Amino acid sequence: MSHGFDILNNLIVLENGKLTVLRSIEDIETLLEKLTKIQDTFREKHTPKGTRVKADIDYMIRLITNMAYFVYEKELYKEH
Asked: Hey, how many other C-beta atoms are within 10 angstroms of the C-beta on 49?
């Protein structure tokens, strides 16, 4: 089950000049909340740029959610 954590170790977020390595479910939840807010901003913008940004964010959310599954599985394994 360590493969999920290995994937997550490679996920680094740069926000306001600060680098953060995502290591837990809470870190991932925070990132998904921020992405969802950005996604909502572009939801009603039917311009080519707005559509592209929303599609890119949709894709990122799907990838991060899939990675979160592996981390969640690892955290469950540590508890037992």
From this structure: 9
- Greatest C-alpha distance within the chain: 50
Task: Note the pLDDT tens digit of each residue in 42-80.
Answer: 888 888 888 888 899 999 899 888 877 777 777 777 766
Q: How many Å apart are CA 47 and CA 52, to the nearest integer?
A: 8
| pTM for the predicted model, two decimal places | 0.66
What is the total residue count of the chain? 80
Rounded CA-CA distance 76/67 in Å is 15
- DSSP string computed for 17-54: TEEEE--SHHHHHHHHHHHHHHHHHHHT--SHHHHHHH
